[in-house]
Input
Amino acid sequence: MSTRLNPYTVAPEAMKPMIALEESVAHSGLEHSLIELVKMRASQINGCAYCLHMHSADARKAGESEARLYLLNAWRESALYTPRERAALVWTEALTLVSQTHAPDADYEEAARHFSPEELVRLTLLIGTINVWNRIAIGFRSHHPNDRAPKAEAA
Output
């Protein structure tokens, strides 16, 4: 799979609002650990290797445990996530899969129990932002750095 194009070099002015939105999300007041979990979960759903690589590294640097990262795909079955994180993950899944879920009232109500109205707007912008980043990375075939070179198979 080869990279299709680099949007930062092809259209740097078009990318500036996206970068500004990302900065806004990063400084939204939501917990850094929650931001990374949301980015990871949306990226898992969307199958974005580039973003999964980036946000798992960012989460680890910020002190996130390996167990929580490994179990994120099965968060509903794990007690490692707080009620607030669980509510954010419910809302993340509902909005990332919006064509299937149509953002159910029950999911909104769960999120609204754990987030103020302003935080809910910020959380929704976070979810929307990572979904756009996923589409940019997947659409243009961005490649994550190779931490390990593949080992040659024995002949």
